Amino acid sequence: MTRPRPTPALPAPTFLNSWPLLLATLAFLLIPFFLPIPMVLRRHPLIGNLGDQIHVPFLMILTLLFYWRGPLTGRLKWAILAGMILGGLIELVQTLVGRTALIEDFALDLAGIGLAAGLVIWKGHKMRAGLGLMVALVMVLSAQLYFLPGLILGSYHAQQNFPLISDFEGMHEKWLWKETCQARYDFVKTEDGTVLQLESGPPSRWPGIQMRHFPHDWTGYSTLKLDVRHITPGREKVPFSVRLDDYQSRKDQTWVSNSFKATPEWTTYNVPVIDRKVLHGDRLLNLQDLSYLLVFLSDKNDSTIIEIDNIRLE
After folding, report:
1. In this structure, is the dihedral angle defined by the CA atoms of residues 121, 127, 133 and 136, taken in order, positive or negative?
2. How much is the average pLDDT of 80-92?
3. Are 281 and 188 in contact (CB under 8 A)?
């Protein structure tokens, strides 16, 4: 005799009794994960910065749908497992449509699944442990996403000031930059205004800074310029490199770069961007879809400090 399916402790919304509405809900939740994201959306200051966070509510709802309808009805543990499997499959399938599988996205999936479980345990089984789980997850998510308001405002600011990429004077610009490989950086006021001060110390592999929240269509411009000097005691020159990645670089791991040597005097360094062939590849850098700007300190065996100002396109 077939065992009857358990009744969900947390009742499903009444509209899910309609299979057409249920299937429409599933399609609405799943299809966005399997389509290429239009450039206008992934480069939008608001949508682009919030886009990854959609994993949390979508996987929460999908896990609840597993729990409410179908062969896993009323079986919370199996619904949780199904949500985890689906989250992993989403990341794998996305690689087939030009998107990237990211462990960070899967972590957001797990947060959404945990919120679904907490809701069922709290409201369905009347156990406070479910509320505790939900509160803990919300606190973790809040701590990880505290930078989003500044990042969104900084992205709008970068759009308004383009083709100036960054002069480090705006109050929101600090949210746009991120260190790489254990580098240290700070926004420092000097006699010339505010500059970004970048410092490395051994052992560190390619210490630097990166930025990706700028307008990404660079067509019509021929050169990226930046003003740099070094303030490293006892050094005549300090090597550094500038690297540019386009969106396709996320898949083929190719880019363009230029190496320079900073002196104690402010100097303008030029990075040509037109007809640049990527390293270790046969294609040209796509100026319609630039993704990352990175500045590296090239001397990995010594402590060096450079200051950067007025990054702009001409």
Report:
1. positive
2. 89
3. no
Q: Where are the domains of the chain?
A: 14-146, 166-313
pLDDT digits over 57-79, tens only? 889 999 999 999 888 999 999 99
DSSP at 31: G
Which secondary structure element, helix H or strand E, spans residue 130, and what is its range?
helix 128-144
Which pLDDT tens digit goes with each residue over 256-292?
A: 999 999 999 999 999 999 999 988 888 999 999 888 8
- The C-alpha atoms of residue 55 and residue 153 are separated, in whole angstroms, by 22
**Residue 240 near residue 197, CB atoms below 8 Å:** no
18 φ, ψ to 5°? -90, 115
CATH number corresponding to 166-313: 2.60.120.430
What one-letter code names the amino acid at 50? L
Beta-carbon contacts of 237 under 8 Å, excluding residues fewer than 6 positions away, are: 230, 261, 262, 263
